[in-house]
Amino acid sequence: MAMGQRRLGSRRQSQSVVVLLLATAWCAAAQLSQNYYVSTCPNVETLVRGAVAQKLKETFNAAPGTLRLFFHDCFVRGCDASVLIAGPDDEHSAGADTTLSPDALDLITRAKAAVDADAQCANKVSCADILALAARDVVSQAGGPYYQVELGRLDGKVGTRAVVKHSLPGAAFDLDQLNKLFAANGLTQTDMIALSGGHTIGVTHCDKFVRRLYQFKGAAPPPNSPAMNLAFLRQMRQTCPLSYSPTTVAMLDAVTPNKFDNGYFQTLQQLKGLLASDQVLFADRRSRSTVNYFAANQTAFFDAFVAAITKLGRVGVKTAGSGSDAEIRRVCTKVN
After folding, report:
1. For residue 77, what pLDDT is reported?
2. N or C: more exposed end of the chain, with fewer CB within 10 A?
3. What confidence tier does 39 reach under pLDDT thresholds 50, 70, 90?
4. What is the rounded CA–CA span in Å between residue 133 and residue 44?
5. DSSP labels for 184-215?
6. Which residues carry a binding-site annotation for substrate?
7. Cβ distance 214 to 79 under 8 Å?
8. Cα separations (Å) of 187 from 22, 113, 165, 176, 184?
9. How far apart are CA 60 and CA 171, in angstroms?
């Protein structure tokens, strides 16, 4: 066979594999439905919503933490609650990422207990679906949109520790890097910008943006780092001095940190985005118009966010046809 024919055959084979993988993912997602538990656990949404409300009364930290937990879960191994599986010595499998919220993990544990305490629902609802519902409820209860959640996921059996760092956006990612990672999960640039709007609630640690604040001796500044408002820069240097504590955090949206709104996009317009990967959305002309649109129109942002998080919730799902690779966990942090 000629070299050109071998290359063409190899290319066609690769394309066939991609098509097969996409078809498999579509078939799994097609088995999700909004009324999946209508006969087996009709009260599941009420039970999860109640657990979320109770936890948020105790601490708002659980809201951004739960939303982030759902995002991490879907991006790392698909939306199968694998991010919840505990590693050695009960350390969570994604424990290398210290920003995963203990309050969010506790919220999911409580929600699972509330669901299983209902005799009709016991051991019939997956941790993956509980996490998806809880993510919707923290958004809604923080003032964001309420939307219908597709259900029917099963839980995975493999933890995420080995792959978590390579599956998530970096704090210094540029627009091309962000688009490439999101596109690999079937998400568009608009989806990526809308999901980034989830940073309208929550915090980030100093180590994620400190290189934007100081010129370190012997270390080059981040390449193409977006500009920062000078007054904001000085303020952040007070929050994160050179001798900052590893536990010190700053609000991603300092204006309305406990409200799910479009304030995040307005901070980007003011050059007050903490993470380079956030501020680049306004700095890059290819994405700036979408930032401006969402900053001026909260309804448009909410609509785009609902569309994007619905698509996110279909990534890598395991359903009834997944065989022995999936289950409904009795305890969310351990495989059965």
Report:
1. 86
2. N
3. very high
4. 9
5. TTT--HHHHHHHHGGGGS-EEEGGGTGGGT--
6. 169
7. no
8. 13, 33, 19, 13, 7
9. 23
CB half-sphere exposure, 158, CA atoms < 13 A: 10
CA 85/CA 157 separation, integer angstroms: 8
CA-atom Rg of the chain in angstroms: 21
Q: What is the mean pLDDT of the chain?
A: 87
Residues 156 and 192 in one domain: no
Q: Does position 110 have pLDDT exceeding 50, yes or no? A: yes
What does the alpha-carbon distance between residue 274 and residue 203 come to, in Å, rounded to a whole number?
10
Q: Are 288 and 204 members of one domain?
A: yes
What is the Cα 197 distance to its own chain's centre?
Answer: 11
For residue 69, give its domain range: 44-168+313-327
Clarify whether residues 193 and 302 are in a common domain: yes
> CB of 190 within 8 A of CB of 236?
no
What's the predicted TM-score (pTM) here? 0.88
Largest CA distance in the chain: 69
Residue 86 has phi, psi (to 5 degrees) of -75, 145
For the domain that residue 274 is a member of, what is the CATH number? 1.10.420.10
What are 165's two structure tokens? 């760092």
Confirm whether 232 is domain-assigned: yes
Tell me the C-alpha distance between 314 and 74, whole Å.
Answer: 8
Residue 325: pLDDT band by 50, 70, 90 thresholds? Answer: confident
Catalytic positions are: 72
The answer to whether residue 99 is domain-embedded is yes
Annotation: binding site: 73, 76, 78, 80, 82, 91, 169, 199-200, 253, 256, 261
* Structural contact between residues 310 and 139, judged by C-beta atoms closer than 8 angstroms: no
Beta-carbon count within 10 A of 195 CB: 20
Helices and strands in the chain: count of H runs, count of E runs: 12, 4
